[in-house]
Amino acid sequence: MRRIHILLTLILSLNLFAVKPASAALQADVRNNEAVIDFPITVTFRAQIDSTANITSVVLEYGTDQLTCGEVIARAFPQFTPGKSADVEWTWEMRQSGSLPPGATIWWRWRYTDETGNETVSDQQTITWLDSVHNWKTITADKLNLHWYSGSQAFAQDLLDAAQNGLEFNATKSGLAAQSPIDLYIYANTNDLKDAVLYEPSWTGGQAFPDHDIVIIGISQSDLDWGRGAIVHEITHVLVGHLTFSCLGGVPTWLNEGLAVYSEGRLDSASQGQLDDAIKNDTLLSVRSLSAGFSEVPDKAYLSYSQSYSIVKFLIETYGQQKMTALLISLRDGATIDDALTNIYSFNVEGLEDAWRKAIQAQPRSASAQPTAQPTPTFVPTIVPISGAPLSNQLMTPTPIPTSSFGEPSTTGTPTTQNRPPLALTLALLGTCCILLLLIGVIALGIFVRAQNRKGGNNVE
342, exposed or middle or buried, with CB in 10 Å at 0-12, 13-18, 19+? Predict the structure, then answer.
């Protein structure tokens, strides 16, 4: 019931922003209608609008082509001098709104009203949000468009073949199919990639944007082996994001990342070795803790990906691809991960962990003294390759989150079983008390000394 209430509230909120169609859908006389991109900072919309009567109102309507829960139209109100001709201009500042992914489609149109009350709307225009610095080239196959500017045709074809293999693997093994064409933007290196998106962590090597059907990634020719796995990893995020897109719920990180790593094939030797050591030493992370983001501690981050792969592999290879698809659809339809697992596999998250641990011959799960983490959507880009070494599974997230029930406490202030005041507050209160006591002592000493002086003075003859 609460989810339904939230959904209705969201729909009503979106309707508030929806713009009603013009009462008079006339063709606007709009000249020099253009959008000028200063990538990746701004896009400036400008036009000259002419009318037979004085123009009293001009509104810029704009947006992007992406998955949304409802039609939302952004509106801007450029300043102009009323008259029969108006020069209008408005700039979209990405540093204020947040950057769009390279390759995103921006649309816009002008809506103006004259003094007689007639309203006119111009034709809708589009532009691709992309830099003009690089000489982009494109090759396509099936539902994939690969764009690159550095490296040979063979280099691009190699990556496109890897992406195709990834699509086929996901379709047959995980039940994930491309719903629409996916655009892959291959930057020559991670430095070029960082210049293309604002406010990204310095170690970001690639990122998926499921709502835009876009993947961006920095792959040099010397990192081709790493790039093949990384591109499949990010494509899988797009496929999962499309299948599970909803305003009702989300996909736990272990499932999203586990599917992405599973699509790359088997773990590399280093990741498999780390997972084997965790099984042997009974230092596996709890599945519940992996429902939220992954740790920023590198060893735990790497183990989180390897362990998520192992869990997803267990579910798919034990219970089949169809149940995995049903699990994702159930999450899309608003079920919690516990309810979805119970309805499809007859166990909740803890039951999944018990079954998985038994399958990999790990120690039974121990009860946690800490409250468990709840699943939340997590931004998970691909880590930058170091010195050309393949790091297809060595990924990190930029957000501190709860980790397992063992080891150091979480850095996010996760609630514990005892409600203790913060250490800084305790020290501050203690210091204040000490200062007050010292002042009281000084005052008391001053009174005592003055009394003694008076007494001594009275005794003088």
Answer: middle
